[in-house]
Write a structure and sequence with these properties.
This protein is mostly helical. It has one domain. The chain contains six helices and two strands, in the order E-E-H-H-H-H-H-H. The chain has a two-stranded antiparallel sheet. Strand 1 and strand 2 form a beta hairpin. Helix 3 crosses helix 4 and helix 3 runs parallel beside helix 6. The longest helix is centred in the last third of the chain and has 27 residues. The N and C termini lie far apart (56 Å).
Length: 141
């Protein structure tokens, strides 16, 4: 039994084993779909190939930095988030550690990941706008 995701790049479906462990196991305090819901990586690939483990770590760090920019007030987090966002949404496939190359090596759908991150960030932005407007609204008697 497995779960399927649309790979979009080649219009094929890629099966993901139901017993896979997600790369990311942290939950945001926003409760929205997060990286572990966007992608998962076969633990056996990472444990057998050190390069794959490094690629997983690079991808995990980029997703965490991308997400942190929306929930952290620090300039450092926002800067790292912008850098991660540029990397995640780049079409560069020449570098061995570009987002597209890592997705290819780990058999992940880059467009699927990008859609998930974009949807997550839009939900968080919306929640942040609602919080700000709630604070700005005058209290009713």
């Amino acid at each position: 039994m497995g779960t399927y995701i649309d790979a979009q790049e080649n219009d094929s479906l890629q099966a993901l084993a139901a017993d896979r462990n997600p790369v990311l196991e942290r939950r945001s305090h926003h409760g929205a779909a997060l990286a572990e819901e966007v992608f998962s990586v076969r633990p056996s690939v990472a444990s057998r190939q050190p390069e794959a483990a490094l690629m997983c770590a690079v991808l995990e760090d980029a997703v965490q930095c991308f997400q942190k920019q929306f929930v952290s007030a620090s300039r450092h987090a926002r800067r790292l988030g912008r850098e991660a966002e540029a990397w995640l949404f780049s079409d560069n496939s020449q570098s061995a550690f570009s987002f597209l190359s890592i997705c290819t090596a780990l058999d992940l759908g880059p467009q699927y990941i990008r859609r998930g991150l974009k949807g997550w960030s839009e939900r968080v932005r919306h929640q942040n706008r609602l919080r700000i407007s709630d604070r700005a609204a005058p209290a009713r008697a």
